[in-house]
Amino acid sequence: MKRIAVLLSNRGTGSNLAAILSAIDKGEIKNGKVVVVVSDKEDAYGLIRAKKRKIQTEVLDLRDFLRRGKSRLEYDEALGKLLKEKYQVDLVVLAGWMLILSRNFIKYFPNRTINLHPGLLPDGAAKYIKLSGGIKIKAIRGLVTDEAVQFAIDHGYPITGSTVHFITEKVDQGPVILRSKVKILKGDTVESLYERMKKEEHKVLPESVALFCEGRLKVKRGRVIIK
C-alpha cells in the first residue's frame, strides 16, 4: 500500500483532494492511501475535508517559520523530513500547493512528487507544445490558477488544459505524466473555463496517482514511460 501525502493551500476548496479520496473509495486507486494532508495555511478548506475523513493533518506556515529566523531552504528541508520520517510517505501530490519546492525537499522524494498545473506543458524546457492538427501554443509556465487560465484566453488559444507532472528543480519543466485538454469557447471567462478544466483535472490527477501506486510509471531520459 503506497502512502500518499496531499499538499494544498487555501485558494481552492480542496476538490482535487476530494477527487483522489473518491477514486480510492471506488477502487480506481487500488494500492494507495492518503495518510496526511498538509497546508501552509491553517484556513485551507482541504484540511476540513481531511479531518472529516479522519486523515491526519499538518499546518506548516512559512511566515511563522521565517519569523522564527529560519530560511526558506530550511522550510523545505523540514517539510521533506516531516513527510519522510513521521509519515513514511511514498508519493507526494501537490494539489493546489502554492509554494515552489527546492532541492531541499525534492531530494527526499525524487520522481515521487507530482504536481497539477493549470496549463498545458511539454516535457522539459521546450517553449511550445504541439496540439492535434499541428497547432503550436506557448507553454503556460510560472503562472498559477486564475492567472494561467486568463493567459490562455488572452492569447486566443483554441485549447487549454491541465498537466500532471513530476516536479524537478526547474519549475514546470518536470516529466509529464498525463494531460487533460479543454476547448476554449467563444465568450469564455476564467470562471466558466476553469470550471470545465477542473472537471477534467478530477479525472487526470487520480488516474496519475493510480498509475504511480500500481508501479506503472518510469522516468527515463526526462520523460515518463507508462508501463
Order of strands across the widest beta sheet?
3-2-1-4-5-8-9
Q: Number of domains in the coordinates?
A: 1
CATH class (first level) name: Alpha Beta
> Which percent range describes the beta-strand content?
25-35%
Task: Determine Rg (CA atoms, Å).
Answer: 17 Å
The shape is globular
| Low-confidence spans | none
Largest β-sheet summary: 7 strands, mixed
Structural class assignment: alpha/beta
CATH-defined superfamily: Formyl transferase, N-terminal domain
Report on the structure:
The structure is a single chain. The chain has 227 residues and is an alpha/beta fold. The chain has a single domain, classed as Rossmann fold (3-Layer(aba) Sandwich), CATH 3.40.50. The chain contains seven helices and eleven strands. It has helices at 15-25, 45-52, 62-67, 72-86, 103-106, 145-154, 190-213; strands at residues 2-8, 32-39, 56-59, 91-94, 113-117, 128-130, 136-138, 159-166, 176-183, 217-220, 223-226. Strands 3-2-1-4-5-8-9 form a seven-stranded mixed sheet. A two-stranded antiparallel ribbon has the order 6-7. Strands 10-11 form a two-stranded antiparallel ribbon. Helix 6 packs across helix 7. The mean pLDDT is 96.
Outline:
This protein is of the alpha/beta class and 227 residues long. It has helices spanning 15-25, 45-52, 62-67, 72-86, 103-106, 145-154, 190-213; strands at 2-8, 32-39, 56-59, 91-94, 113-117, 128-130, 136-138, 159-166, 176-183, 217-220, 223-226. Helix content is 34%, strand content 26%.
Secondary structure layout:
Layout lengths: L1 E7 L6 H11 L6 E8 L5 H8 L3 E4 L2 H6 L4 H15 L4 E4 L8 H4 L6 E5 L10 E3 L5 E3 L6 H10 L4 E8 L9 E8 L6 H24 L3 E4 L2 E4 L1
Parallel strand pairs: 1-2, 1-4, 2-3, 4-5
Antiparallel strand pairs: 5-8, 6-7, 8-9, 10-11
Helix pairs in contact: 1-7, 6-7
